Amino acid sequence: MTTTATKLDERTIEIVKSTAPVLAQHGESITKRFYEMMFANHPELLNVFNHANQKQGKQPRALANTVYAAAQHIDNLEAILPVVKQIAHKHRSLEIKADQYPIVGKHLLLAIKDVLGDAATDEIIDAWGKAYGVIADVFIQVEREMYEAAAKKNGGWNGFREFLVQKKVKESDVITSFYLKAKDGEAISDFLPGQYVSVRCPISGEKYTHIRQYSLSAAPGKDHYRISVKREADDYSPDGIVSNYLHSQVKEGDVIEVTAPAGDFVLNMDSDERVVLISGGVGLTPMVSMLHSLVESQPDRNVRFIHAAINGQTHAMHDEVKHIAARHDNAAYYVCYEKPTEKDRAERRFDKEGYIDLAWLQSILKDNSGDFYFCGPSPFMKAINKALTDWNVPAEKIHFEFFGPADQL
């Protein structure tokens, strides 16, 4: 990447950086129009993109933020390499290919012109076209390396691979786990705790296939994968169509298609510092994988697992995590229920009623040392991030993962 920016002349860089604030101001309008135009001309791409994220505006917003960030650093793209890699992991998992980038570039420029009108002069459009080419080259290069790495791993592969649903386990009223074993009986690639796979579902009655990404919820090093899926909304809304399909229609013995593990929200196994895992709802899935890995691979490393759920009926894997904490002296487990049931109270299933807050974190953790990992719904994540920031936890010790396009905390 060190020579990438030299492909752009100073005038192009000047135009892109000076017009970036204007595009940021109209960013969501531009990206929304971009998706409308691109899907109209290339409906086959609807087999790749998450329809729910489109409908909810998450994808246009995420793309707008990415474009603006890239424009701001067009003369130093190394500065956004961590963001590039995070997005590239998702692209590799979705099987995004290099030949799709020109399609995206063409329609992004058309959308800029369509939204800004005469303000988008030929010189501005030309400059942004050149800039997009440079940015796309960076993504293509990073993703090419990721595809090669995924294929070269022992048991690795590219594309979608068929897996048998070996076992299906109901974890709570809303979450079910699927144990997946390669249909061909061959080895499967290892993964890092916190990573995810993409699942492709050809749903009856749907014109396009649907792809969703699910965190791996068991420890690495097994002969199978486990994903734990929350049933979202209902069958008829875009954000619930895949989870309802998996819950209601996929049975043990069925075949589903999966890409190799990906993702950069991973546990740092090179440290011996305390680890604090904080999850809300189905956000516990990558945390459970991290917990298993910690007690198996680093049995002397202190780990605290803190989970928030509505109540015991929606709380998945409680017994599993409780059993791990009971068997390992280095692990402790705490539960917070927003609205506990009478059964929860009778069985003493939780440690706090309401929400996780800084005062409670300070009471159970004593100090702010170690690495903090958290995942859950956006409001939950914003609250946890604020609590840790208010506690003066260093930014480099705070790690989080969004399910879906990245948002702002």
UniProtKB/TrEMBL annotation:
Chain residues that bind FAD: Y196, R212, Q213, Y214, S215, F402, F403, G404, P405
Leader peptide range in chain numbering: none
Residue ranges occupied by any FAD-binding FR-type domain in the UniProt entry: 158-268
SUPFAM superfamilies reported in the protein's UniProt record: Ferredoxin reductase-like, C-terminal NADP-linked domain, Globin-like, Riboflavin synthase domain-like
CDD domains the record matches: flavohem_like_fad_nad_binding, Yhb1-globin-like
GO terms (BP aspect): cellular response to nitrosative stress; nitric oxide catabolic process; response to toxic substance
InterPro entries: Cbr1-like_FAD-bd_dom, FAD-bd_FR_type, Flavoprot_Pyr_Nucl_cyt_Rdtase, FNR_nucleotide-bd, Globin, Globin-like_sf, Globin/Proto, Hmp
Enzyme Commission number(s): 1.14.12.17
Xref: PROSITE patterns: FAD_FR, GLOBIN
Domain Globin: 7-144
Binding residues annotated for NADP(+), in chain numbering: G281, V282, G283, L284, T285, P286
Cofactor(s) annotated in UniProt: FAD; heme b
Chain positions of site Influences the redox potential of the prosthetic heme and FAD groups: K90, E401
Region (Reductase): 155-409
Site (Involved in heme-bound ligand stabilization and O-O bond activation): Y35
Keyword field: Detoxification, Dioxygenase, FAD, Flavoprotein, Heme, Iron, Metal-binding, NAD, NADP, Oxidoreductase, Oxygen transport, Transport
MF-aspect GO terms: FAD binding; heme binding; metal ion binding; nitric oxide dioxygenase NAD(P)H activity; oxygen binding; oxygen carrier activity
Catalytic reaction list: 2 nitric oxide + NADPH + 2 O2 = 2 nitrate + NADP(+) + H(+); 2 nitric oxide + NADH + 2 O2 = 2 nitrate + NAD(+) + H(+)
Binding site for heme b: H91
UniProt-annotated catalytic positions: Y101, E143
Family listed: Belongs to the globin family. Two-domain flavohemoproteins subfamily. In the C-terminal section; belongs to the flavoprotein pyridine nucleotide cytochrome reductase family.
Function of the molecule: Is involved in NO detoxification in an aerobic process, termed nitric oxide dioxygenase (NOD) reaction that utilizes O(2) and NAD(P)H to convert NO to nitrate, which protects the bacterium from various noxious nitrogen compounds. Therefore, plays a central role in the inducible response to nitrosative stress.
Domain notes: Consists of two distinct domains; an N-terminal heme-containing oxygen-binding domain and a C-terminal reductase domain with binding sites for FAD and NAD(P)H.
Protein name: Flavohemoprotein
Source organism: Evansella caseinilytica
